[in-house]
Specification:
With about 180 residues, this protein is α+β, with helices and mostly antiparallel strands. About 15% of the residues lie in helices and about 40% in strands. β3 and β4 form a beta hairpin.
Length: about 180
């Protein structure tokens, strides 16, 4: 199996979420976002939502495009099957609170299928909550930001995708109206 393209970026969480979507899919999907809270990763075909158990430590997002579907690693914390359609051939990694963290050009527009898997999610959440539990009220300014930057584990989400087919043509025929 050959790796065709890869993109990595650290993203700030907003409402526990990082979003991956086609560059033209601007409207979000609250139902899919809510589903991510239960499934860790959920989507609607144009958006994928990645749900963290903590709010302040950046998550590493990796998008890898393969020449054929591949299975998630057996040592991952969890995995789900995903589908994302990109009519533009550009995927955006979005931080809900502050905007895009970056974008990836796909080898070609179309429908990509595969798996989302994650690691470090629980360990990062444990560190996050333990740090908050032990924070003194009179802690100096900046102590939390330093703690988040020095997290002993990295929360990582990986989208391992393979091109499966072209996008369905959009019917722009409004003559029936």
């Amino acid at each position: 199996m050959a790796l065709l393209a890869e993109y990595s970026v650290n993203a700030t969480l907003g409402r526990h979420i990082v979003e991956v979507y086609d560059a033209d899919a601007h409207l979000g999907d609250e139902t899919a976002m809510d589903a991510a809270e239960q499934q860790v990763v959920a989507g609607n075909g144009y958006h994928l939502y990645l749900y963290s158990l903590q709010l302040d430590i950046d998550a590493q997002i990796n998008i890898r495009i393969w020449d054929a579907p591949r299975q998630p690693p057996i040592d991952s914390e969890g995995a789900v099957q995903v589908v994302i359609e990109s009519e533009t051939g550009i995927l955006v990694v979005n931080q809900l609170s502050i905007g895009p963290a970056g974008q990836m050009s796909l080898p070609r527009p179309g429908v990509y299928e595969g798996h989302a898997w994650w690691s470090g999610r629980q360990a990062t959440a444990d560190y996050y909550h333990d740090t908050l539990d032990h924070l003194a009220e009179d802690s100096p300014d900046g102590v939390l930001q330093r703690a988040w930057r020095s997290s002993p584990t990295a929360e990582r989400y990986v989208l391992d995708l393979a091109y499966t087919r072209p996008s369905e043509p959009v019917d722009d025929d409004d003559s029936d109206l």
